[in-house]
Fold this sequence. Notes:
Helix content is about 30%, strand content about 25%. It is an alpha+beta fold. It has 2 domains: about 5-80 and about 170-365, Zn peptidases (Aminopeptidase, 3-Layer(aba) Sandwich); about 80-165, Elongation Factor Tu (Ef-tu), domain 3 (Beta Barrel), CATH 2.40.30. A hairpin with a 6-residue loop joins β7 (about 120-130) and β8 (about 135-145). α1 (about 5-15) packs antiparallel against α4 (about 180-195).
Amino acid sequence: MNTSQERRLKKILALPTAPFRENAVTAYATEFCGRSRIPCFNDPAGNVIVGAKDRAAYRTIARGTAREPLRLFIAHTDHPGFHGLERLGRNRFKAIWHGGSPVKHLRGARVWIADQAGYQGHGEITSAKIHKAGYAITELTIRAADPGILERPAKSLFGGFGFRAPVWQSGERIYTKAADDLVGVFAILETALALKKARSRRPFLGLLTRGEEVGFVGAVAHFELGWLPPGKKQPMCVSVETSRTLPGAIIGKGPVVRLGDRRTVFDPAGLSVLTELAARLLPGKHQRRIMDGGVCEAAAATAWGLPAIGISVPLGNYHNQGFEGGADCRGPQGPAPEFVHADDVSGLLRLCRGLMEPRLGWDDAWRTTRARLAKNSRRYRREFA
Length: 385
């Protein structure tokens, strides 16, 4: 990343967001596209479409005449967080949690509080109920540091876990209240900008979705619009994610060619193209693994019959859970800032741009592998006798 890209990444990481409260992120994306003269519009679900000015332009790009598939890059604009429910007193309110979360060391944990206008202040958790399955908060009570915050209706408020700052950097590690999946949103916008500067006419669309953390709601709503063509004209969906670090997917070792998630494996032909691309562009600086720490929008695309592949940046303290610990962590499985490595993000940008290169072999993704195996087979012909 260059200095301007780092500045833009940190700006988007600092924005408040939660499921169905993504307006700051979607507004940033829309403003970014407008400033960069990149066409964009909102679909009926409020997802941001990057690379087309309206539905008609979208369908023209999707139908296309190119011999290679449209690359439909997908990332989500939300992160687990709470919605206010009701005021409980002078400075307390009840809230409901959406998505995954830490489940320990919650009492006294700091939270940021926002409404549709932006950040309004901070508070702390005074009590929390945990889902019977034990994986996340369901309801919580919050004490606002400034009682004036509750001059607004409680239902207008939302937020998430807060730390020393919305985003900061230590060495090559970038810490933030929410990297998942604002890093993916950043990568798609930067890819669109690079294509714009190169005056590329290759088939590209970005889909920045809402409500991913509660079951891919925005992506599903988009797929059900029926705007994408069936059959041979289907796009290659590219999930751009920020996924929990796992053995074989280590922070600082490069972006991950995601072979699948906890729900399914991805398109074999598309993964062959992506694997060869990563080997060429990032030799020794990428990883390859089934990232089964969670489920991503590539699985949703697959369920709707669309071929899909994935790229992930390894993520520390996934969903603000203190798996890796470190700065501002309140304890194991307690609130902690998410973090990513700057080099991994740079590698992600390289792979996204690389997927837009011409003649990557989409029409015969196994050609190189087939040639290698055939050559090896010829060496052993005498053995058949």
